[in-house]
Design a protein that fits this description.
With 154 residues, the chain is mostly helical. The protein is built from seven helices and two strands; from the N terminus they run αβααααααβ. Helix content is 75%, strand content 6%.
């Protein structure tokens, strides 16, 4: 019995030492990521920041829409979704449009059109199930874009 306890203690001590070494001295060397096959889109720093800010705004608006669904509040949904709908398309800088790949622009505009569709349906004929379906479509558009493109600074 004593030999079993000593053997187990040695095993756990060895395991702890190995894991401690890995965590303290190898850094990110053990973290392997698959090859990133996304299309690289390079923007000037100000345009990249604009794109990143817009994506963060998408998340804020999507959260507000979800809150509106939970509260059964179509006005809240309309107000949130409208901010990223046609208004956002109209405010897109020409410089960004010229530098973005066509398929990237298409996905971006599709996202704005989906926000506008959510706003319109919340205003005219609110149905929570319809809004949830629209949100699923919007989320899938975001996923497709993030799986296809990687935005970096020139």
């Amino acid at each position: 019995m004593k030999k079993l306890l000593i053997g187990t203690s040695i095993f756990f001590l060895t395991t702890t030492l190995i894991l401690s070494y890995i965590l303290l001295f190898t850094g990110t060397e053990l973290v392997k990521t698959p090859d990133d096959n996304r299309t690289l889109v390079k923007y000037a720093p100000d345009l990249r920041e604009l794109v990143m800010t817009e994506m963060r705004d998408y998340l804020v608006v999507m959260s507000e829409i979800q809150q509106g669904i939970a509260e059964n509040n179509p006005e809240k949904i309309y107000t949130a979704a409208e901010r990223e709908g046609q208004i956002a398309i109209d405010d897109t800088p020409i410089r960004l449009l010229k530098l973005s790949p066509l398929a990237c622009k298409t996905m971006g505009f599709q996202g704005h059109h989906l926000f506008q569709a959510i706003a319109d349906s919340a205003k005219t004929n609110y149905n929570p199930k319809t809004t949830i379906r629209q949100m699923a479509e919007l989320t899938n558009n975001c996923i497709a874009c993030h799986n296809t493109y990687k935005v970096e600074t020139e």
